[in-house]
């Protein structure tokens, strides 16, 4: 008989996922919307993109944010207790993959709806039929899953060695070194997943892709990545100035959100009445 080490999550872990997760994801909505606009605007700086996000006023920065925030309740319950269940029979790597696929099934529709609403807020009518927030599949769903695998690896694989490195460098082990290690691990994952996320954003906010054949779509995606991240000057091809912009903006979104969540979860576990 196969044994499982899965245990029902503690109350503070459930509270962190059920209430803290949605609060965190709603809070970082402007960062997510800035990333979406950046996927179709190579020339703009991070400052200019955030300016576009808030072009309709401060509250306008949170356009569409309610949909990912609503999906964040099951999403963060997935990142917490469900991850440990998956890892109990498939190991850490298997847990990361299965968690990420489940997360995509939960939030793909909401994030795609959010991205398309943010695009229409900037360019009204660009996307006539906005994707349903409750439809778990569609254009770019595989790209979305790959992005989640990388991001979840940051939370579940990269943070611990980064924390050890911070502790070794500082000679201390406390809440600040844990926070620094978490942030470093999540920044690493954010940087690795940045081009994948931008490709997802491009895919769901470029309606004409849906009328292309498979090979045409692949060629257009490759062209997008080249245009986004490479530039040729004087016959030499090198990384574009967009690279540090996207790495910064992706880090501001993913690393801030996951670090906030991890810190909240640990704090609740530590302070919750026993």
List keywords for this structure.
274 residues, 3% strand, 2 strands, two-stranded antiparallel ribbon, globular
Describe it.
The chain is an all-alpha fold. It has helices spanning 11-27, 29-38, 46-53, 66-122, 141-170, 175-204, 214-229, 242-271; strands at residues 230-233, 236-239. Strands 1-2 form a two-stranded antiparallel ribbon. β1 (230-233) and β2 form a beta hairpin. α2 packs across α6 and α5 runs antiparallel to α6. The radius of gyration is 19 Å and the shape is globular. The mean pLDDT is 89.
* Tertiary shape: globular
Percent of residues in beta strands: under 5%
The DSSP helix count reads: 8
Mean pLDDT over all positions: 89
Span between termini: 34 Å
SSE order: HHHHHHHEEH
The level of helicity is over 70%
Strand order of the largest sheet: 1-2
State the major sheet: 2 strands, antiparallel
What is the radius of gyration?
19 Å
Structural class designation: mainly alpha
Low-pLDDT residue intervals, each spanning 5 or more residues: none
């Amino acid at each position: 008989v196969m044994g499982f080490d899965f245990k029902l999550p503690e109350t503070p872990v459930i509270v962190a996922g059920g209430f803290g997760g949605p609060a965190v994801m709603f809070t970082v909505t402007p960062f997510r919307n800035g990333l979406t606009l950046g996927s179709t605007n190579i020339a703009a700086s991070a400052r200019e993109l955030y300016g576009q996000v808030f072009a309709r006023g401060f509250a306008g920065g949170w356009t569409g944010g309610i949909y990912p925030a609503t999906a964040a309740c099951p999403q963060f319950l997935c990142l917490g207790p469900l991850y440990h269940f998956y890892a109990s029979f498939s190991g850490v790597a298997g847990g990361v993959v299965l968690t990420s696929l489940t997360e995509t099934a939960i939030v793909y529709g909401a994030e795609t709806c959010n991205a398309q609403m943010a695009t229409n807020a900037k360019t009204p009518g660009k996307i006539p039929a906005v994707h349903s927030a409750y439809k778990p599949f569609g254009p770019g769903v595989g790209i979305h899953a790959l992005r989640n695998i990388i991001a979840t690896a940051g939370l579940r694989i990269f943070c611990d060695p980064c924390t050890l490195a911070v502790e070794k460098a500082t000679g201390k082990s406390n809440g600040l070194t844990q926070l620094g290690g978490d942030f470093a691990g999540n920044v690493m994952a954010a940087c690795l997943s940045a081009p994948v996320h931008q490709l997802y954003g491009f895919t769901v906010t470029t309606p004409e892709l849906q009328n292309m054949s498979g090979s045409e779509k692949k060629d257009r995606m490759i062209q997008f990545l080249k245009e986004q991240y490479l530039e040729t000057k004087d016959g030499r091809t090198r990384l574009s100035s967009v690279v540090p912009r996207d790495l910064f903006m992706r880090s501001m979104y993913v690393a801030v959100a996951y670090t906030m969540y991890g810190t909240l979860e640990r704090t609740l576990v530590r302070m919750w009445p026993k």
